[in-house]
Structure formats: structure tokens, C-alpha cells
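FORM 12-B: Structure-to-Sequence Request
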């Protein structure tokens, strides 16, 4: 090997005796390659040298490869977060430089292959799209895709421009760009994103090198399809009659998917794709860069990057885990209660290689719990997402039983019975007789204080709350609740378990409703509060979805049943009275009482709530709702409706910080987005409070406006007001 560029750079090259140059991606100062300044400078040097060697006829072809576990991690998000609103021009120049290097690589005149040994997402995939041949190792853990939209960005390194030319406008948008899909190599091969897969990493470089040598004398192999003379855009250009006929439906469908919420990135992606499809590649690339620069300089991308990258990374790295506690791994978990939650927890454990004892009072119920997993697995097999053999292995790990003796040998007990303290104490008493003193004791509860439930076990220091979200197989979040006597070792083991089964843990301190259930209640109750004021019910729900919530509050109340918030309010009032305290009556309860007691409309399960239902599917709003509540003279500004939802949750979240229920902004952001549907485009509830226009001072001012107009529930506390005035955040 003859070194061409220095091997201590982030990108360097080596040329072998056959004239094949390998461009190595290997940032010496980071565990993963990103498009930082080190990459830009080094790639520029490598391409300069490559062009000189090609001109001297010393190169037959090129292979782009990585020496990291992942091929290339993507854009430099740390650097992107530093770009200010007035620096869009600098962002444009930066991304144009990156793309210029890749364009020079793909037009260098010799065949270029990429050997994809690990994940190639975002910028990493865009590097490979600038090569003529892409081969990846056939490993399902390897992911390929352009997920920038999930961070409020678009693929600015050529991802939009090239995928449109590879797949056509419609397929590129639907299959790769608008939802940021990630696929394993086999699926990427089927979709035409890559050209080949190999069984092992040892075969990867030889396969890429072999293709380069086989095509070294073919000038067409050294050209991208879009650089060939007879290239036509798959599916036609926007001006073609066939595409022009359906093009107007694109923005309408996007608006329908976003439900009117403010997500700039998908709109920018669609605009860049459509505009770029009607011009030459270089012009399309500049259009893409302009949209990218606008997004990078905007607030939305900053908010989403903070939540979906930095906050997620912090939680995944164990930022909330007590230090100095040895890592643990569960081998056998006992789940008490085989209802929907227990069955879901059993599946979550078994699908990650953990043996499960699923106990219920009847054999029929226990078997039904196991059948829940079978249904999920059968669906995966039918969609070719796993083999029948693998599905059978998962199912074999679940042992349904009525015999408590089968719990012997369990490392962890997870109770998932009805929300009744006496029942929970009873099943724990039975289980504790069978397990040893090292077994972790967990209660799956959404509202009951853990310290109180801990009185029903003999080892309160080993007792902790695990609040799973339904359906467990789809919801990644688990809220871990620490009781007054819960030990650090117990918390650490609970976090380890949650991560072991592929879930995302947040940690909160004990309180009725904890963090998520408590804050969630403020959103759903704001809907009936508005109804009581005379606001049209359709506006109430549409204001929720257009504010960024997945579902409007009235529709959501139908899902959880109208009786649940009333029951929680009653229990909260009783608990407060027992402590000699009073709690204000939540807004909206009178409407729920009328719907339940006078009209017998408890929600979707009964086929009637705020909406009518047929065969379990939501239909139109109950006609009598407007007749009963809507007032024609009510003219509440639509923006106020949207803000009332966001601020109702945010004010209560701030109280959770004030009371010490939650102490981590990362946990609050991720918990609010993944657990209770707080608008993802804000970056989460803590981010919404701290970076509101004008900062926390601006948030407090707007909250006071809402309180003056709609009620004291929006009034910021003295604690929050003082922190805002002092320029402090929610935590020290």
C-alpha cells in the first residue's frame, strides 16, 4: 500500500499495486465519523490528490470505506446547533463545499464503490449515493436511510437531489425522504438503494474492490445514471402530463399527514424535491442547499435536534443512572397479571431474550396473555420481518401459569394488575414467598404513589415503579418512579432492565400521577373546559392537532374513557383531604359528569362518547354536542386555543420541577413527547418553557395573559416567575 494522504486525518487514502484507491473515513478525534470541519478539510485534500492521480493515469478506481463501527454517522449536529438565525449564508456555503467534494468524486472519471460496514444514515448515506456502486454487509443491525426530517432538517448533502433521480419524485418522497425511513441492507437492496450485500464484513472490501477492477475499463460504469446522455427522470418530470396530474395532491396529502401542525422540514423537503426535479442536477443541488440552510438556521431544527438527538443520547447513555452500581442483566422475569399491560410487558421481555413467567388467576387468562405475543409474532412473520423459527423461540420463552411457585428463580417481578393498592399488595405477598431477597420488585402503575404501594411489600428498598405505556410493544417510553425508600441499586437495576428490553427510561420522584399521567390530564381536560365555554367541538380538536398533538383532546378522552379523569380527580381529592390539604377542582369535570351521568356516553369502548362509533371506528362528533354547548357569540382566537393546550401542560410540568417530581430537562422533554404526545416540533415541554420567544420571561408573560383570559390554572407560580426574572432555567 502506498499512502496518498496522511492517516491521522479524518479522511485519508491508500493506493494499492493494482491502482485501486481506498478512501478511509476515520476521524481520529471521535468514536464516529461526522461531517465536521475535520472531515470537510480532509476530504478536500483527498479529492484534490485523487484528481491529480487520475490525471496521471495512476488510478483505476476508488473504494470508499470506514474504519469505525458505523460507516458514517451523518451531519455534525454539535456544529449545527451553534448556527445562529443570521448565519444561513454561512450554512449554505458550508453545505455547498461538502457537496462540491462529493460531486467531484462521482465525476472523477473512474468507477467509485462504497463498502458499507455499518450504519449509514443521513450524511453517511449521502456519501455513498455519490458513488457508482454500493455494497453492504448483510446485517439487520445495519441501518440505511435519510432520517433528517425527524430532526427538523432535510438531507442537504445531496440526498434529496440524488434520490429523486434514482427513484423518481413520488417514490423518493414516500419511501425515503418525508418520513425518514431506515432500512436494513436486505430491504435497501430490494428497494434499489444499494447494489449488493455480502454475508460478512471480511467479504466487504474485496467485493467492492472486485467491482471496481471489473469495471475499470468501462467509461459508463464511472458515470451516475443522471450523468448519462439518455437519462430520464423515473416517473417523469413535474412537467410531464402523468405527474402533473397528481402533483397538486402532494401538498394536500402532506398537510393531512401533519394535521396542520407546523413542521417546516417536510414542506421544505417536498419543495426542494419538486423544484429540483424540473432542473439540472447542479441547479437542483443549490435549491436543496438553500432549503437546508434555512432549516439549519431556524428554531424548529434546534428544538428537535436537542430532543431527538442530545436528550435521547443522554438518557440512553445512563445520565439518570446512579453512579458506582454494577450493571445488571435479567435472565427471568415474573409478570403478575396477564391483561393487556402484563401481556405487553411479557412480549417486550421475551422478544429481547428474557424468559418470562406470566401469572394470572386463571389458566385461560394466562394463555390469552401469551396469545397476545403470538399475534404480534405471527404478524411479523407474515410481513417477512422475522422467521418462523425466531418467532417460535420468542414465544417459547413465555410460560403462562396460575401457580406462584413458578416464580422461583425470577430476577425481577413486574406487577401489572388493576390499579387497586389492596390487590397489588395481595399479589406481591404471594410472589415474595417464592422469590429470594435479591429479586427486584416493580409495580406497573400510572398514578398510584409508589411510597404507599411499598408498604405492601417486605423489602421497600427493593421496590420501584415501572410505568409502561400502552400498547407496550409499540411505546418505547418507561417512566421509572422512585419511592422514598427505593435504593440507588434498585433504581440502577430498573434502568438496566428497561434498557435491556429495548425501552427508553426516564426517572421521576414519587407523586400522585408522577410526571406523565399528571401532565397528560391537563391536556385532555382543557378540551371539555373549552366546550363548556361554548367553543365549537370541531375547533377544539383541530386546534389540538394543529398545535402538534397527535390527537385532539375530545377524541383522546373517548379513547381513555371519560370516567378515567373523573376517577383520578376524585382519588386526588381524597388523598389531599387525608393529608389535610385541598386541591382546586380541575376545569372540564362538569362536562364529563354530564356526558357520563345524563347522556351515558363514556367513550369509544361503549361506542359513544364525544364522537359516535361504528364497528370500533370513530365517526362524526355527536350532533347533540353542538346543540348542548356551542355558543355562536364565542370568538376565542384560534392561536389561544392552541396555546391553552401547550401552556396547560407546560405550567403543570413546571410545577413538577418546582416540587422535585422531575429534575431532568432531558427526561421531561422525552417523557412529554414519547409518553403523552406533547408537540414534537417544540423539542419537548421543558424546551418549550425555556426557549419560548423571549425565553422564560416570555413564557411567563404569555402564561399570565392566558391566566387573565381563561383562568388561574394558567398562572405561573412565584418560583417559575422568579427563576425567569433571574435568567435561570428549570434546573440549576
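FORM 12-B RESPONSE
SEQUENCE OUT:
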Amino acid at each position: 500500500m502506498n499512502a496518498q494522504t496522511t492517516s491521522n486525518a479524518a479522511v485519508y487514502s491508500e493506493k494499492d499495486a493494482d491502482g485501486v484507491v481506498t478512501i478511509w473515513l476515520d476521524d481520529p478525534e471521535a468514536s464516529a465519523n461526522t461531517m465536521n470541519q475535520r472531515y470537510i478539510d480532509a476530504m478536500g485534500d483527498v479529492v484534490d490528490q485523487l484528481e491529480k492521480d487520475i490525471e496521471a493515469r495512476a488510478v483505476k478506481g476508488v473504494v470508499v470505506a470506514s474504519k469505525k463501527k458505523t460507516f458514517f454517522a451523518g451531519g455534525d449536529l454539535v456544529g449545527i446547533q451553534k448556527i445562529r438565525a443570521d448565519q444561513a449564508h454561512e450554512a449554505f456555503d458550508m453545505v455547498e463545499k461538502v457537496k462540491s467534494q462529493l460531486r467531484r468524486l462521482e465525476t472523477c472519471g473512474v468507477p467509485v464503490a462504497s463498502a458499507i460496514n455499518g450504519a449509514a444514515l443521513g450524511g453517511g448515506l449521502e456519501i455513498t449515493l455519490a458513488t457508482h456502486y454500493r455494497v453492504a454487509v448483510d446485517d439487520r443491525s445495519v441501518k440505511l436511510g435519510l432520517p433528517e426530517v425527524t430532526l427538523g432538517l432535510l438531507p442537504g448533502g445531496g440526498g434529496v437531489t440524488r434520490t429523486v433521480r434514482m427513484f423518481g419524485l413520488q417514490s423518493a418522497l414516500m419511501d425515503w425522504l418525508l418520513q425518514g425511513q431506515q432500512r436494513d441492507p436486505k430491504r435497501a437492496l430490494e428497494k434499489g438503494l444499494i447494489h449488493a450485500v455480502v454475508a460478512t464484513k471480511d467479504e466487504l472490501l474485496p467485493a467492492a474492490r472486485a467491482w471496481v477492477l471489473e469495471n475499470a475499463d468501462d467509461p459508463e460504469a464511472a458515470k451516475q445514471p443522471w450523468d448519462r446522455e439518455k437519462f430520464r427522470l423515473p416517473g417523469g418530470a413535474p412537467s410531464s402530463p402523468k405527474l402533473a396530474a397528481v402533483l397538486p395532491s402532494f401538498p394536500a396529502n402532506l398537510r393531512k399527514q401533519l394535521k396542520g401542525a407546523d413542521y417546516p422540514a417536510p414542506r421544505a423537503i417536498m419543495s426542494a424535491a419538486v423544484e429540483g426535479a424540473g432542473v439540472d442536477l447542479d441547479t437542483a443541488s443549490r435549491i436543496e442547499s438553500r432549503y437546508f440552510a434555512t432549516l439549519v438556521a431556524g428554531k424548529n431544527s434546534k428544538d428537535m435536534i436537542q430532543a431527538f438527538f442530545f436528550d435521547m443520547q443522554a438518557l440512553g447513555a445512563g445520565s439518570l443512572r446512579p453512579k458506582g452500581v454494577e450493571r445488571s442483566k435479567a435472565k427471568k422475569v415474573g409478570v403478575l397479571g396477564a391483561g393487556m399491560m402484563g401481556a405487553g410487558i411479557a412480549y417486550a421481555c421475551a422478544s429481547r431474550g428474557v424468559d418470562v413467567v406470566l401469572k394470572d388467576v386463571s389458566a385461560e387468562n394466562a394463555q390469552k396473555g401469551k396469545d397476545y405475543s403470538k399475534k404480534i409474532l405471527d404478524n411479523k412473520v407474515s410481513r417477512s420481518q422475522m422467521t418462523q423459527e425466531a418467532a417460535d423461540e420468542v414465544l417459547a420463552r413465555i410460560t403462562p401459569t396460575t401457580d406462584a411457585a413458578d416464580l422461583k428463580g425470577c430476577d425481577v417481578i413486574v406487577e401489572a394488575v388493576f390499579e387497586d393498592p389492596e390487590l397489588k399488595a395481595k399479589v406481591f405477598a404471594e410472589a415474595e414467598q417464592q422469590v429470594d431477597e435479591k429479586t427486584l420488585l416493580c409495580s406497573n402503575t400510572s398514578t398510584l404513589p409508589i411510597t404507599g404501594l411499598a408498604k405492601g411489600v417486605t423489602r421497600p428498598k427493593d421496590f420501584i415503579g415501572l410505568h409502561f405505556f400502552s400498547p407496550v410493544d409499540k411505546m418505547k417510553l418507561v417512566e421509572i418512579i422512585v419511592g422514598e425508600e427505593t435504593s440507588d441499586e434498585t433504581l440502577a437495576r430498573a434502568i438496566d432492565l428497561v434498557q435491556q428490553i429495548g425501552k427508553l427510561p426516564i426517572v421521576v420522584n414519587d407523586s400522585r400521577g408522577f410526571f406523565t399521567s399528571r401532565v397528560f390530564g391537563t391536556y385532555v381536560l382543557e378540551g371539555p373546559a373549552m366546550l363548556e365555554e361554548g367553543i365549537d367541538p370541531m375547533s377544539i380538536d383541530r386546534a389540538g392537532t394543529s398545535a402538534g398533538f397527535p390527537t385532539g383532546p375530545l377524541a383522546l378522552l373517548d379513547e381513555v374513557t371519560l370516567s378515567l379523569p373523573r376517577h383520578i380527580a376524585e382519588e386526588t381529592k381524597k388523598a389531599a383531604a387525608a393529608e389535610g390539604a385541598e386541591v382546586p377542582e380541575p376545569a372540564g369535570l362538569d362536562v364529563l359528569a354530564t356526558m357520563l351521568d345524563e347522556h351515558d356516553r363514556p367513550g369509544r369502548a361503549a361506542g359513544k362518547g364525544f364522537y359516535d362509533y361504528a364497528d370500533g371506528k370513530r365517526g362524526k362528533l355527536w350532533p347533540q354536542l353542538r346543540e348542548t354547548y356551542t355558543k355562536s357569540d364565542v370568538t376565542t382566537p384560534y392561536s389561544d386555543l392552541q396555546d391553552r393546550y401547550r401552556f396547560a401542560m407546560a405550567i403543570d410540568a413546571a410545577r413538577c420541577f418546582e416540587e422535585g417530581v422531575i429534575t431532568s430537562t432531558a427526561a421531561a422533554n422525552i417523557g412529554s413527547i414519547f409518553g403523552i404526545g406533547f408537540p414534537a416540533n417544540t423539542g419537548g415541554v421543558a424546551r418549550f418553557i425555556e426557549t419560548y420567544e423571549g425565553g422564560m420571561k416570555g413564557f411567563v408573560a404569555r402564561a399570565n395573559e392566558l391566566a387573565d383570559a381563561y383562568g388561574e390554572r394558567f398562572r405561573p407560580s412565584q418560583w417559575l416567575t422568579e427563576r425567569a426574572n433571574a435568567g435561570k432555567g428549570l434546573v440549576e
